[in-house]
Amino acid sequence: MEILACPKCKHHPLDLKVTKEEKGEVLEGVITCSRCRIDYPIEDAIPNMLIPEER
């Protein structure tokens, strides 16, 4: 998480909210930029780091 930056505003670090985890791996959750308030979902252990306009 320390190396991730928001694709839109380049702010870091980002906030992580885990909703499902297995063996230390995040399977579901949300990564949020505290500056521009964009949520990036994590589904099936894959974060979708596209800004909403590109999804």
Q: In what range is the share of β-strand residues?
A: 35-45%
The end-to-end span amounts to 21 Å
Low-confidence stretches: none
- Major sheet: arrangement of strands: 1-2-3-4
* Estimated radius of gyration: 11 Å
Return the domain count. Answer: 1
Mean pLDDT: 96
Described by the principal axes of the CA atoms, the overall outline is globular
Question: Can you count the helices?
Answer: 0
Number of separate strands: 4
Elements, N to C (H/E): EEEE
Secondary structure category: mainly beta
Biggest sheet features: 4 strands, antiparallel
How helical, in percent, are the residues? Answer: under 10%
In short:
This protein is mainly beta. It has no helices and four strands.
Walk me through this protein's architecture.
- This protein is mostly beta strands.
- It has one domain (about 15-55).
- The chain is about 0% helix and about 40% strand.
- It contains no helices and 4 strands.
- The radius of gyration is 11 Å and the shape is globular.
